Each structure stands twice: as structure tokens, then as C-alpha cells.
Amino acid sequence: MNGRTRIALHAASATLLTAICLWPLVTPAAWLVQAALILAVSTGAGLGLRRLGTPRPMVPLFQLLVILLLLTLGFAQSHAFLGILPGPAVFTQFSDLISSGVHDMSEYATPAPAHTGLTLILVGSVTLIGLIVDTLAVTFQRVALTGLPLLALYCVGTGLHSSGPTWLWFLLAACGYLSLLLAEGRDRLSRWGRVFHGSPGALTGAPGGHPLNATGYRIAAVGVVIGLLLPVALPSLGDGLLGRIGGGGSGLGGNSIATAVDPLASIAATLNQPTNQTVLTYTTNSTSKTDQYLRIVDLDQFNGVAWTTSKHQIEDLPTPLPTPDGLGPGVPQADMSTTITTEPNYVQQWLPMPYPATDVQVSGDWKYEPEGRTLIGGTSGTTAAGLKYLVTSLVLRPSSQQLADAPAPSAAILKTYTALPADLPALVRTDARAVTQGATSDYAKAVDLQNWFTTTGGFSYNTQVSGDTGVNAMAEFLKNKQGFCVHFAATMAAMARVLGIPARVVIGFTPGTEQPNGTWVVGTKDAHAWPELYFTGIGWLRFEPTPTIGVAPGYTVNSGGNTTVTSPTSTATAPAGKPTGKTGGGTGCPPAQGRTAGQARTITPCGGDRADNTPGSATTGSGTGPLQLALIAAAGLLVLLLLLPMLWRLGTRRARLRPQPRELTEQQVLAAWQEMIDSAWDLGIPPDAGETPRRTAARLAELGEFGEEQRAALGRVALATERVLYAPEADTPASLQQDVRTVCSGLAASADRRARTRAVLLPASGARVNRRIRASVRGFRQRVLAAVRSVAERLVLGPLRTVGGRTAAGLRRLARPLRRGDERRGDGDGPDGAA
Q1: How many CA atoms lie within 13 A of 130 on its CB side?
Q2: pLDDT at 450 over 90
Q3: Looking at 209-223, 359-373, 674-688, which range is the least confident one?
Q4: Using an 8 Å Cβ cutoff, are 118 and 104 in contact?
Q5: Residues 211, 201: contact at Cβ < 8 Å?
Q6: Alpha carbons 48 and 58: distance in angstroms, whole number
Q7: C-beta of residue 588 within 8 angstroms of C-beta of residue 462
């Protein structure tokens, strides 16, 4: 395989390794196989064209034509001439599919369904990036520049995924790019010609002629390790819900349409962050935690893959806000005032507020979305970062009787908020009806669902479960009965819709942790999702199906439903909220963190509850998750590999300089010489296998600026080595260890501090480890092949020879009578035998 072919193959593999970061965006991921096949054909076409001597500018054009033909065959075959030749109809089909894919990108959350339009966009993007990489690396031989298109592909893939970049995607992309640089280095060095004298690594600076010397390997490995470990050491508020949901600060004006792609899926990444960063603080005149949920945005559309926000018209912020939709007279209510201060690094476009807000006093250009009663940044740069604002909201106290007697919702509400995908699993429907069997009202059904999730259904809280909320993930959640707030909220909302109850999913924060001065602190660990259900005459009400998290509203405690729930004592004016779920801490939390009835609850970093009368702090850290453990293990393995040359060097030095009880052997003399050569190599003087010991000694004495003592010691070691190598009978000295130490001390004295430090931590002679490992592998492979040949000889060839020998002997015995008959006939055909 020549250098150009190797570079082309590595360019294709680098593109595919980088494209793996796009894998989680669409499900199923069969499009990646399709992209790999097209990329392979395009790479092969480029290799063939270059072999034929095609002009360089024409090669990428022909490759682009090949990609177009293959995309036509895969996505527009019915519109093409002869099924492969593109025409105007093909380009029209491509345009329609791309428009459909762009529409799906705005409608679906990740992972989106693998519709044809999205598949075309992904396959086309990866193959075009692969073409650019191939053109730069192979056609124009600018391998370093390929990092730009690969970086663009990596940034797009990791930027669109809800969990952001992960260490695995980075590691694959980095290895792909480094392998491409390695292949280019080998090709470049191979053109310098053959080494006729000196060490095999004289041209490359490494043994064996490898294109990356030891320093290059270390730089690459250290760079990858730093890239993996640096994000772990830096605290971050993350993205999505606590970063830029839907592209915060993009700017809206007039009656623009507010949309969001996937704010729900980001909660998983937020809850699994290693630290609990403060998001905001607030003060309130409320005395009940059940009223202090901070709402950000509602998700009212379920497409079968995820819950998302539908498109809503927005308007200028009115003062005061309109009366909540569906709220009628006769519902007990009170006003609550909350002053909220957000952190400067809390950059997102929605404003956290209690629900339902009736008045907001906030600076900046904020727009009002009436359907969800949310505020969204209007102009570019308007975000919730570093704000202090006052929110006046209603505290609704509907009675159980009012909720049970609520009339049926309007047809418009039912059409919008009870819509379900056609592929909703039957398990969701059967569980919803089984849990609420016997309930006589929508309210009783809703409370039965909540109690089933928190108390009687056997569910447990676990943030390590995947954050998907599609129909398949929903079915798995109901089977495994493990998940976190995303699963509980999304599944209860879907089951409520099955029962004909209007429902939606809401994202926001639980009340947080109260401080001694009366201020409440909300951190990233307080991010939460919950369902809201609609009741005519009251409006949208919050429910809490997540066990061990949050506070259940008072109106869901004594409902008269099928499930009996013990509630704390409450008053008519301000019923106290009751923590939902089982008695005791959540999954994974110590028993000491279990809650006791009547005690104040705070959210712990592990995701469970902590019964405590002393307020905690929202900035406490959390434990290490499996991802961090895997990352630490991988980093430890890399560090061990980096330390392997140093450990090997220490071991060899100790063995070579060990005092000997009697006269040195020839092997010990050569080991002493090798120790001196390796010490010089570690300090920056590479060996030259083409030199004699005497010439090497002269070079070391000159470069090391030796004095008389060092020169004498070096001469004795060189003389002993020459006698072992060239004399008919070697006369070995009694000891050379002290001379070797003297020479090594002289070499170290002539080197600077950096060289001495590098010689200890990253010895260049440690490259011999790689050579020995390769030799060991080669020897092991040869022994295995010899054993296989022996077994084949004994089991296959031996019996075949035996059978062949016996067959030949049998044929010879059969041929003897025939030969005798021929001899007799020959005797009777002469003149004496003529008739």
C-alpha cells in the first residue's frame, strides 16, 4: 500500500469516526452505514482517478459526481433516468426532502425519527465533509487543514445533542485526526530516501523509522488526556435548560412565533453534572413550599419521540398580565410576591416565575406568550442572566369537591392537549385504565395516577437512566419502573391524555434550599419536570408524580380517589404540602436522608430527599457517576502508559549497574555500554548504530564537554566493548559500573535542567519498549503459526499422505495383472506366432 492510498483510507476513517457524534441525533442510526458506503465508493473513485493521472482539480469534481449518482440511487431513484442518472425531477425531489428535513429539525427533539429528509441531510453532510477532507489531504496534500471541516462536523453533532459533547465522541474524533496526521507523516518521510548508515531512526528521530518520534507520541497523548480531563475540572452550568434553551438570545420581535426544540432532554445532563451550581436566589412572602415552584416553559406537543413546545404567537408584555385561562369565580386564591435574582452566568431565554403570574416587573425587552403564560426574551441579547425582578402570582386553593365537579373541557382544549401519536404503546393505555379503574371523575383519576407513581406502583428514582421520552422509552420505563422526573412527568401526562384529561409537561425548578436569612437558593440540582392537568373552572394545576422529589400540592392529598394517602394536618386557608412517595430516602440515598412526616424537605445532590431542620447550601457537590468513573479509569490507563517508559528505564538502569561479585561477563560489558548509550539518548544525544565504540566515545566526549576523569572512564568502557565485539578472546575488566556512573554524571552535568527532567520523566530510550513489544508479538505470532502448521500436519496432511500412499499401493496392485497380460500378448504377436 503506497502513501497516497494510506492517507485516503485514513481520511475516510477520520470522517466516519468524527461523524459518530451525530449518531444520537436520529434513530435508528442506519443512515451512518449508508454514509459509510457512499464515502467508501467516493474514496475508491478518487484513488482510481489519481492512479490514472487525472488532473488534480478534476478529481474532486468526479468524486462529487459519484456522490450525486449514489444519492440519486438512494433517495430519488424513481425520479431519475434509468434509476441513477439525475435530471430536473431529481433536484426537485432533493429540494423537497431537504425542506422536509429542515422542518423536522424544528419540530422534533433528539433523537428525531429517521425520516427521509433528515437522513438525506445527514448522509449528504457527512459525505460532503468526507469529500472536502479527501480533497485537502490527498489531492492537495494539506493534511493539517482537514482539522477545520472535521471540527465543524464535530461541533455541529455535539452542539445539537441534548447532553452536549461527551468524552467518547471527542476521543474518537481526536484519534481519527491523529491517525490521519500519522499517515501523512509516514508518506512524507518515505520520500526522503533510504537510510544507508546510522540508526534506523536517524531520519525520523525514532527507532524503526516510525513517522512520529517519541516526543510526538507524548504530545498527542498528553493533548488527548488534557482534552478529556479539563472539562471535568471546570464547573459549568451546562446547556439546554440551564444554558441556552432553544437558542437563548436569538431575538424576537412583534408577533413572532416562539418555539423550542428540546428543553426537556437537557434535564438529564443537568442533574448528572458533578457540581450543584447556584442558578438564582429569591425571597417570598409564602410560607408553603408547595407554592414556590418556579416555572420556565411548558411542553404541549408529544410527537412520539419527545415532548416539545408547539408554535405560539407572542405579544408585548402587558401590565398586569391577563386573568389565567379557565379560572372561574369561587376558587379560593391569594396573592404571592416573589423577588428573584438570577446569576450572571444563567443565560437562557425564558424567565423563571411562579405560576400563574399576574404581574411581572422586569427590565429588558421581554415578550409574553399567552398560551403558557411565559416570558421570553424579545431582542438579541435579552436573557435571564444577572436580573433582579418582582413577580406577583396567584396561589390557588381549589377544594377536592370543586375539582371533582369540574365540567368537561372545551373541544379546542381537548383537541390540543389530548393528542397522542398513533404508535403509542398499548402498555401505556392499559396501565392508565387499570390504575384508574373505579375512579368517578377526572380529578380522581389524576390523583390515582400520581399516587401510583409515587407510592403504590413500585417506582424508584434514578438519574442514570437515559433521558429519552419517546414511546419506546416510555414503555421501557413502565416495565423497569426506574427513572427520574423527565420519565415520571412525560409518562403521567401521556396517561392522562389517554384518559381524556388535558395534560402538558412543564420544566422549571423545585423550591430549592432555604437559608438562615430567609433567602431561598436554587441550584442546578433543583431542575425538575412535572405535569400540569387542566380542569375547567380552575385552569392548569400542577401534579407531582416523581417519588422522593418535590412537594405534592395540597389539593392532591385528600381526593377521595382509589388510593388512600395519609396527609399532614392542614387548614382551609393554607393547606400544607405533603411530600410524595415512599417513606425513606430515594434510590441511592442513605437511610439517614429519608424524610419524616412534618419535617421540612430539601433536595439533596443524590436526587433523594433529606429530612433536615437546618437549611443546606445549593452549591454542594454531588457524587461521582459512572461516566466520571469511566473517564477517570481511562485517564489512569493513559497515565500508566505514559509512565511505562520511565518505569522500564528505571528497571533497566538498576539491573545494568547492579554490583557484580566476580569478573564481568561479555553480556555484562555490553549491558554497561548500552546503559551509557541510553543515558546519552535520554539527555538528547541519539545513538548511531553505524559508529564504532571508539567513534561513539569521541562523539560523546565532545558533545558532553568531558574532563580528563570522564574521558578516561569513557575510554575504559569503549575499550572493553571493542574487545568483546572484535577480539578473538575477550579480556573483560573486573568492573565497569563506576565508570558508567562517571560518564553518566558528566553527560547530566553538561545538559540543562529541562533535559535532565525529561530524561527522568520521559526517557527517549524508552522507545525500546515498543520495539521489544513488537518483537514479542512477532515471536508469539510465529510460534502460533508454527503450532497451527504442526497441528495441520498431524491432523490433516498426515492422514492425507497415509490415504494417498495406500491408494497408490492399491493402484499398483491392480495394474500388475494388466501389465502381465500385455506382456503375454506381446510374446504371441511376433513372426513365430503368425497364423
Answers
A1: 34
A2: yes
A3: 209-223
A4: yes
A5: no
A6: 13
A7: yes
